[in-house]
Amino acid sequence: MTKQRWLPPAARSPRFGVRLIGGILALYVLSAARTFLHAQPDIRPNIVFILTDDLGAADLAADGAPLADTPALDRLRAQGLTFSNGYAPAPICSASRAAFLTGRSPARLHFEFVSKPAGSKPPPGTALIQPEFPINLPLDEVTVAEVLEPAGYVTGFFGKWHLTQANDGYLGHGDTFGPRQQGFRVSGEERGSHPYSYPDRRHAPAGDFTPGAYEPDTLTDRAIDFMREHRDERFLLYLSHYYVHDPLGTRCEWLLKKYREKAAKLGVLAAESRIGYAAFVEVMDHLVGRVLDELDELGLAENTLVVFTSDNGGAPQYTNNGAWRGSKWTLYEGGIRVPFIVRWPGVTTAGAVCAAPVIGTDLFPTFADIAGAPLPADRLLDGKSLRSLLEDPRASLARDSLVWHFPFYHLPHVNQTPVSAIRRGDLKLVHHYENNRSELFDLAVDPGETRDLSRVRPADAQRLEVELLAQLRTMDARLPRPAPGH
């Protein structure tokens, strides 16, 4: 299947022929402008977007993680800007990834769950009928690669895609709905040192690595090769890690020994799964550090925008979300609040913190803004460019609220039923569809969402619920409906 190149609506209009002469004249003007621009040095930055998988808001050392050492991300935070209210677009993998690529809410995309094979069945006996599972990200969606390539950026995607079932293996890119069909010039689905590479994912093969030596990682190698090859061009590198998603496993026995000893020294009661998870987080940090070090070696760091975040909150089997309630698969803070760090030398202030709520859908318009690329005019985006906040973390963003939508059941681990949420200012409302009940929280005084204020402040709860449902209607969101007999 071949994806047609995205064109603005005017080029598809029946009146296009009438405008042809004007278009030709415009081309002369555009050609002259391009000649002028090409005569000027291109000071636009490279863009490196590093997405990790299932990393919770409290999993990094600087966020209070009791075990894992994360020196590379500590350094990135010290050199860049941290968004202390950074959010993923969804509490689950594929939905967030679709939103990162398109700048559109999972509710608007109708891609609110993980990609599932056609015919996948919902859990039986539920009170509500959930929507059908998403399968492939449609090719008519416009991705960030498709707006940056025409603006002169070489685009590369490496790692976890998880937006199609048209592939030859779990998480494979395939050749019909993969990165290259969605606008990326170069792609690679290497899984690196993650256990997904092992023949038996649950058991890492024996390895002999001295302390301080990590497993080779072909995924990071590909990303570094891409930067080296295109060092003299403008590029977008989208590096999508499989870390720190389970299954846990490392061939570096010294890492496990290190964290067993550290836990004992700190007096931390840590199950072996927590030890393994700390090792996993350190490996992820090491791989991020390799990319940052390569930018330094290539002399590109000073003109490269680096963004680091996660696709959703931490998995409850391993992570410790600290003060945040909930986990992956929920719309409490533990499921959607994530690390969100941006470094743009000369623009972001080293070590600065911005408290404005931001979300992963903001990255598409941010990258387009920075690249000088026009946004698609024939569709609504849900993200906002964060450029003003990068330049001044005290600036305000012209947005009233953030919305999340998860109209599915996820009964393992968290017993999650269909739910939506909205945050306006410090107030957050979580709406449960099974019992048509809403919870209200004031995150300014109760970031852990321990006190439901819906009965104490019913007017606020009603106002936010009305706004939430109205926004979902404007997005044509898919809603669960009552099952027969319920």
- Using only C-alpha atoms, the radius of gyration works out to 23 Å
> In DSSP terms, counting alpha (H) and pi (I) runs of 4 or more, how many helices?
12
For the termini, the CA-CA separation is: 42 Å
User: What is the CATH C level class of the largest domain, in words?
Assistant: Alpha Beta
Q: Report the helical percentage.
A: 25-40%
Instruction: Name the CATH homologous superfamily of the largest domain.
Output: Alkaline Phosphatase, subunit A
Q: pLDDT average, as an integer?
A: 91
Total discrete domains: 2
Can you name the CATH architecture of the largest domain? Answer: 3-Layer(aba) Sandwich
Strands in their spatial order, largest beta sheet: 6-5-7-1-8-9-2-10
Report the principal-axis shape.
Answer: globular
Extract low-pLDDT stretches. Answer: 8-37
CATH fold field value of the largest domain? Alkaline Phosphatase, subunit A
Structural class: alpha/beta
Strand content: 5-15%
Instruction: Summarize the helix and strand pattern as letters.
Output: HEHEEHHEHEEHEHHEHEEEHHEEEEHE
Q: How many DSSP-defined strands?
A: 16
- Report on the biggest sheet: 8 strands, mixed
